Every structure is written in structure tokens, then in C-alpha cells.
Amino acid sequence: GFPQAPGAAAARDATAQRGLPVAVSAVRGPTAARTSFPGETLRVISDDAWGITTIFQEAESEHYAGKLAVAEVILTRTRNKFRSDGSVAGTVLRDRQFSGWNAQAKNRTRSARLDDGDAIVQECIKAWAEAKTGTATVAGAEFYVNLSIVKPEWIKELRFVKKVGAHSFYARKV
Question: Do residues 37 and 22 touch, judged by C-beta distance below 8 A?
Fold first, then answer.
């Protein structure tokens, strides 16, 4: 591994005990940093960060169940490699799949500055961690939409799963 900055081990251990992604400073250039769970591949932005940020963008105003349902969709698409390369980043950043990443999204830049001390962000972190354990709030749904905003034609080809908060969740027909 990389040499760690003074105090990094204690900070990492405290963060890991809270069940959050671990940020460890590395001495490999002036501002190098690493965010990962122990044993995870080094990425500048972890899949956990992509997932949590996307939940925030898509379900910030939803109750916890809505955040959990969005997390499940992200993980289901990733696992099934549906409109995805099999990574969370490759899933959420796919063009026109998760509206929070679209160029015109109003909160895209704001979401890049999330603070894990924020109560809503904490809910997103909790929902992401719980969904990774294999929850089934929306039973394999790979799509969701807020029908009060848009009524897309593509839902006609899908099976309705469940409504959670403002979002209606859908799965491919078998």
C-alpha cells in the first residue's frame, strides 16, 4: 500500500467502525487520497461514492424507503450489467439513465460537494449499505420514474413492481 499521512490510521479505523467508506491520505503526490473499503480496488472515486451520490440526486426528498429503492435499482442494474459495464460508475453515468448526472441536472454540481455530516447524506449512506446486503424493497426493479413529472412511453413495455414515495418502479417482463 501507500505510505499514510500521520493520524490517517486512527481516522480510517474510526470511519470503518461507523461502516462508512474509508478515506485514507496517501503520500503519492501533493493531494493524493484514496477512498475504499478494505480490500477494494483503489479508485479515485469509489463505487460507494457514485452510488451514494446518485441516491442523493435521485431521492434526496424521499423517505428512507425511497432512497433504499433507488439504491436497489442501481445495484440490480450493475449486477445484471443492464445498461451498465458492471461497475456502479458505469451504471449511474450511462447517458440519460440517472437524471442527476445529466448535463442539465440542477443539483449535479451541488452533489459533488456532499458532506457526510448532513442528515440526508447519512440516510443515503445507510440506504446504500443496506441495499448492498441484498434487500428486496422493489423486487428486482431496474427502472423508476416520477409519473407526476414525466410519463414515458417505455413503461408500457415493463411490468409495474411498486410505488415508493414519488417514484414508480418497474422491471422487465419475463
Answer: yes
Q: Is 112 exposed, middle or buried (0-12, 13-18, 19+ CB in 10 A)?
A: exposed
Backbone angles phi, psi at 145, to 5 degrees: -155, 150
Name every residue whose Cβ is closer than 8 Å to that of residue 20 and which is 6 or more positions away in sequence.
Answer: 116, 125
Cα–Cα distance, 118 to 120 (Å, whole number): 6
The CA radius of gyration of the chain, in Å to the nearest whole number, is: 17
pTM over 0.85: no
Indicate the average pLDDT of the chain.
83
Q: Which residues of 67-100 are buried (b: 16+ CB within 10 A; e: fewer)?
A: bbbbbbbbbbbbeeebbbeeebbbbbeeeebbbb
C-alpha cell, 52: 451514494
Q: Which of 68, 34, 33 is nearest to 51 (CA)?
A: 68
* 15 vs 56: CA distance, rounded Å: 20
Cell of 51: 452510488
The C-alpha cell that represents 19 in the structure block: 461502516
Single out the residue of 91, 89, 92, 105 nearest to residue 46, CA to CA. 89
Q: How far apart are CA 61 and CA 49, in angstroms?
A: 19
Dump pLDDT digits (tens) for 70-117: 999 999 999 999 999 999 999 999 988 998 898 888 888 888 889 899
